[in-house]
């Protein structure tokens, strides 16, 4: 499952990279591309839509609209998805606890992290870790 999602993400990124020349003519393309890079490289920070919009020199309303046009999801949804993907990777590559991950990724509680994780991946973080670490579904 994780291998499939990583592969899909790489294919999507490659396709987006190939279209860069064409997309550079679209208004705000480079701004959104830069903010996506910033979010992905600083995913453990606690972002506000206001601060991200300011980085783009856009109003919050404009930022939300432009962001959704490029990603298909709201900024909040995108950030949540990226956090959960990073947490999934951390679960299968380290022994870090759910409590520590919740604190590291600015979740209000481990329960909130588990609830969001299960909603996105269909299994709890504990189940995800055990399935991927014992060969019972790791890799997709």
What class, by secondary structure content?
mainly alpha
Distance between the termini: 3 Å
Kindly report the average pLDDT value. Answer: 84
- The number of strands is 0
Rg is 16 Å
| Oligomeric nature of the chains | single chain
Q: Describe the biggest sheet? A: none
Shape: elongated
How would you spell out the order of helices and strands? HHHHHHHHH
- Note the beta-strand portion: under 5%
**Counting H and I runs of at least 4 residues, what is the number of helices?**
9
**pLDDT under 50 segments (min length 5)?**
135-140
Proportion of residues in helical segments: over 70%
Give the SSE map:
Elements: H1 2-18, H2 20-23, H3 29-41, H4 49-55, H5 60-71, H6 75-93, H7 98-104, H8 110-121, H9 125-133
Helix pairs in contact: 4-5, 6-8, 7-8
């Amino acid at each position: 499952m994780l291998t499939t999602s990583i592969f899909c993400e790489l294919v999507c990124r490659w396709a987006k990279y190939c279209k860069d020349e064409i997309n550079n003519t679209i208004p705000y393309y480079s701004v959104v591309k830069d903010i996506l890079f910033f979010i992905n490289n600083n995913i453990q920070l606690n972002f506000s839509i206001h601060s991200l919009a300011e980085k783009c020199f856009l109003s919050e309303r404009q930022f939300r609209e432009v962001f959704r046009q490029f990603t298909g999801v709201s900024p909040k949804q995108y950030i949540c998805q990226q956090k959960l993907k990073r947490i999934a990777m951390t679960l299968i590559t380290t022994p870090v606890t759910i409590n520590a991950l919740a604190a590291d990724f600015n979740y209000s509680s481990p329960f909130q992290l588990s609830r969001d994780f299960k909603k996105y991946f269909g299994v709890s973080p504990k189940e995800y870790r055990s399935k991927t670490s014992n060969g019972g579904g790791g890799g997709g």
